[in-house]
Specification:
340 residues; 2 domains; 15% strand; 36% helix; alpha+beta; two-stranded antiparallel ribbon; disordered N terminus; 10 helices; 10 strands; Phosphorylase Kinase, domain 1; Transferase(Phosphotransferase), domain 1; ATP-binding; disordered C terminus; Prot_kinase_dom
Length: 340
């Protein structure tokens, strides 16, 4: 009988031992594994379908030999992601382990990732950028309230739903922090200036980098020939420039938020909660959601020649709209991150 471990709602669990009796044949008996939808240094992500109920999911397949010396990354992803339940975070549904591979079964987010979207479009208008910042801020506020720092926030780890919402993924580098951390990790472009001693504020810095890129199409700190030492020095100096003509059409409110997110001093940098409640973010997100509802109404009316089904509109708006309350019913604006 196949060992099948389901993740219950916000329930912690132990990592299965390495001598699991599950085989590839067992997994293929339970799932039909399909096309590749993503890959990374240690894993490939494929679409899969449960054979019993035909539910389409995603499975992250990790070659365990590539994790030698980095086993903690798998431990982190399972223990942290398995304990989280939020509409802006990809859910881990089950995990299985053979002698050679680990299989992490997650909900399928079929719109690709934000890096692909940026590569295709170059930059985004303020409305869409504000909505994306709202989505990410919700996810960050939720994990920061639990003293979890993601440590690898970047467009590649933000997945896009069919309703153009973002979901945070890949918790391999995440950890619980109750005091300053001294481990160097993350992707250089998005690393905060206090990287040698940091807290959850590093995620907000990375969000500021992402917002800058969304609005103009390139990062604020760039080194020649991809020299990482030079890049770190530029980041530490924190000299932010809004280059003309790229930033000429961008509002002062948007620039102000970028400055507040990219404060070199983490003690004066905005928190995820403050970012979520920022007037520009709230205004841009509201405009985008209203526009999405209007577009849906017009499409339905044009297609049927009749008044649109209000229940369907509400459902679409709910799926497009950012969640106002986290699953444990704690109001987003009342949650205070436990920064060191």
């Amino acid at each position: 009988v196949m060992v099948h471990k389901e993740i219950q709602h916000r329930t912690s669990f132990d990592l299965p031992s390495d001598d699991s009796s599950v085989t590839l044949a067992d997994i293929e008996h339970f799932y039909e594994i399909g096309r590749v939808v993503g890959d990374g240094n240690f894993a490939v992500v494929r679409e899969c379908c449960r054979r019993d109920n035909k539910q389409t999911l995603a499975v992250k397949i990790v070659e365990r030999s590539k994790l030698i010396g980095r086993e903690h990354m798998m431990q982190n992803e399972l223990s942290l992601l398995g304990s989280l339940c939020h509409p802006r975070i990809v859910r881990l549904l089950a995990h299985h382990h053979t002698h050679t591979h680990s299989y992490l079964v997650m909900e399928l987010v079929s719109g690709g990732d934000l890096f692909e979207a940026i590569s295709e479009r170059g930059k985004f208008p303020e409305g869409e950028s504000g909505l994306m910042v709202s989505d990410v801020s919700e996810a960050l506020n939720y994990i920061h309230c639990k003293s979890i720092v993601h440590r690898d926030l970047k467009p590649e780890n933000l997945l896009v739903t069919p309703f153009a919402c973002l979901r945070l993924a890949d918790f391999g580098l995440a950890m619980v922090v109750t005091e300053p951390v001294f481990t160097i990790c993350g992707t250089p472009t998005y690393v905060a200036p206090e990287i040698l001693c940091y807290s959850v504020a590093v995620d907000v810095w990375a969000l500021g980098i992402i917002l800058y890129i969304l609005l103009c199409g390139f990062p604020p700190f760039r080194s020649r020939d991809r020299d990482q030492e030079e890049l770190f020095q530029l980041i530490k100096q924190g000299q932010l420039h809004f280059l003309s003509p790229y930033w000429d059409p961008i509002s002062e409110e948007a620039r102000g938020l970028v400055r507040a997110l990219l404060q070199p001093d983490p003690t004066v940098r905005l928190t995820a909660e403050q970012t979520l409640m920022h007037p520009w973010v709230k205004a841009m997100a509201s405009i985008c959601r209203q526009r999405a509802l209007t577009d849906t109404t017009q499409r339905d009316t044009a297609a049927t020649g009749a008044e649109p089904d209000k229940s369907r509109l509400v459902q679409r708006l709910i799926q497009t709209n950012a969640a106002k309350t986290v699953p444990d019913k704690t109001p987003v604006h009342k949650c205070t991150p436990s920064n060191p």
